[in-house]
Specification:
By secondary structure, the protein is of the alpha+beta class. The protein has eight helices and 13 strands. Strand 4, helix 4 and strand 5 form a beta-alpha-beta unit. Helix 1 packs across helix 2. The chain is globular.
Length: 319
């Protein structure tokens, strides 16, 4: 299997503020704060395309690693399918701007699990030859699809925006891809869906239905155990467990269920909301910058997505 050589995250220029959400929705500030856990967070500006952020993150990775764009064999753009323009390939656009003329370009749609799904597709033996490179780009427009005037959408008020680029190399990398386990519970497929309103796509939730929180814990726990069995490891061997920031209560509940100490995870809720598929990469970067990674560390990235899908992507830090 291949591995992650390097990665980068790029944040947009605007910020969402809970006071503006309160004014638009009528939802009490305290109620919104219990969802966002911070007063403001990064979001796309009105005229800011998500693909440009992903392109900038890719340029940073290629510059830092010294890998030439011409050496890229795959360029994959991952997200929710709202690609800034309809019927369009952001992967092809970014590859062209980078100069990756020999790359095969395509998109992967699995919402906030899409980035890790792309890694899964590119990691099996034969998907990427020894010494070959691929670029996975994570970009979305989550905040632009939230209707702050809809009180029933308040659970989505913590949707922010960030883009990421992950450079993969066949048979190498600072982070070796050890295992990927994913599953989808289609009984939740219609719980959220997009609706065209005023010329833009907004997310609407169906009538409230209980049981989703239990589904998160059940599916994540099963995937963790499946992964540990495949690797011949135990829960105590997990050095770091990073979760996308959809819900802080769920984050804590899952750690408690798995008996993983909170200090083995990363909590960014005081400064960032749910930054889409970039959440776990942001957390991974925080660990690196803080000097908290050691060679041989087993790192699990727990990602989830509307649909609903869950994934556990397991890395081993090589140093």
């Amino acid at each position: 299997m291949g591995g992650i050589v390097d990665y980068d995250v790029c944040f947009p220029s605007a910020r969402a503020d809970i006071r503006a959400m309160h004014a638009a929705s009528g939802v009490a500030l305290a109620d919104i704060a219990r969802i966002t856990h911070c007063e403001s967070f990064p979001v796309l500006a009105d005229d800011e395309p998500a693909w440009e952020l992903a392109r900038d993150a890719a340029r940073a990775v290629l510059t830092r690693t010294g890998v030439a764009a011409a050496d890229l064999r795959q360029v994959v753009y991952a997200g929710s399918g709202e690609w800034d323009r309809p019927f369009w390939s952001p992967a092809a656009k970014i590859a062209h701007e980078l100069g990756a003329a020999r790359a095969h370009c395509f998109e992967v749609t699995n919402f906030c699990n899409a980035g890790m799904t792309a890694l899964r597709l590119l990691s099996p033996p034969g998907a990427l030859g020894e010494g070959e490179y691929a670029l996975v780009l994570i970009g979305d427009r989550l905040s632009r699809m939230v209707d702050y005037g809809d009180p029933d959408a308040k659970a989505l008020f913590n949707f922010g925006d960030a883009a990421a680029a992950v450079l993969l190399e066949g048979g190498a990398g600072r982070f070796r891809l050890l295992h990927s386990a994913m599953r989808t519970d289609g009984s939740w497929a219609d719980y959220y869906a997009g609706e065209l309103t005023g010329g833009r796509v907004v997310i609407r939730r169906a009538a409230h239905r209980s049981g989703l929180a239990d589904a998160y814990v059940r599916h994540f726990t099963a995937l963790v155990d499946e992964t540990l069995t495949a690797l011949g490891r135990k829960r105590a061997d997990i050095a770091h467990f990073l979760i996308n920031h959809g819900d802080r209560d769920m984050h804590t509940r899952l750690l408690d269920t798995l008996e993983i100490p909170a200090e083995r995870s990363v909590f960014n809720y005081d400064r960032l909301a749910h930054m889409g598929g970039a959440d776990t990469l942001i957390a991974l970067g925080d660990l690196e910058r803080a000097g908290r990674l050691r060679p041989g560390d087993l790192i699990m990235l727990a990602t989830s997505a509307m649909g609903f899908s869950w994934g556990i992507t397991t890395l081993e830090y090589q140093g």
